Model the fold of this input.
Amino acid sequence: MRHALTSARDRMSSSNVCGARLQSRRKWSELRAALAPDFSVRELSHGLATLLFRMAVCVLFLSAILAASAQNAAPVSGADVYQKRCSTCHDQAGNRAPSRDSLQKMPATRILRTLDFGLMMAIAYPMKREEREAVASYLGTPGGEPPPPASSFCASGIRPMAGSAKESWAGWSPSPSNTRYQTVEQAGLTMKQVRHLKLKWALGFPGDVTAFAAPTVLNGTLFVGSAGGAVQAVDAKTGCLHWVFQANGPVRAAILPSPFEMVQPTRWCLAI
Ligand code: HEC
Done:
């Protein structure tokens, strides 16, 4: 820039009288170019744009904070969430969805688990935490899920997996053939005897409206998971409970047992 200024001054001093007007016009434009080059104008507009951009970001940020705090201030209505997100399916008779009436018999904790990890996960995907909690407590019963009554547990004399390995059905069949079929010898039953069988015990899945996981039988103990995520270890002969484990989500497949220590008695690992 200093160079441009000096050269303009030099050329001004060398002007003669005849071409004075033409000269001075050219010199004026040269001088203006030298004194106020485009560069500084561009710099100024760039600075202004940056400032405006920063201000806009600040305004946006502040309004986002204000909007979030306004939302926090207003409690989420479970009835509204139900209307918006659930009623289309659960208020209609005749589809597979359980009615609002049956949802109202479920514990709120169970409904929340269905939204978080269960069958309604895909539906609940866009829902916020507060909306999930609000709709679960709007619909469901308070107080969580009651544990099974003490009377349903086995007497201390009945130990888990103390039965015969011959009675096991721990894969897709009692043998490694995966036929989903057992022979007369394996079953200890003939075809003719089947119709004389009588119900010995029944097992319920409290609060569930569906069941899909096949049971696994291993050394006289039946393991079964449920839609509500309860894994139950049941004595195959009497139907009494050895233990119950509550998983985070629905247990959709059969429990997979695997020996992890072949000492006597073998220690097992159960995968769900
Ligand atoms: C698009 C339809 C649809 C919408 C929307 C919907 N559901 Fe469902 N819901 C179903 C169906 C179908 C089932 C039964 C699924 C099955 O048995 O496989 C079901 C089952 C359930 C169950 C029982 C699950 C179990 O494990 O037994 C609960 C609880 C439930 N829904 C809650 C809700 C809530 C709360 C909402 C709203 C946030 C909702 N659903 C929205 C269709 C829907």
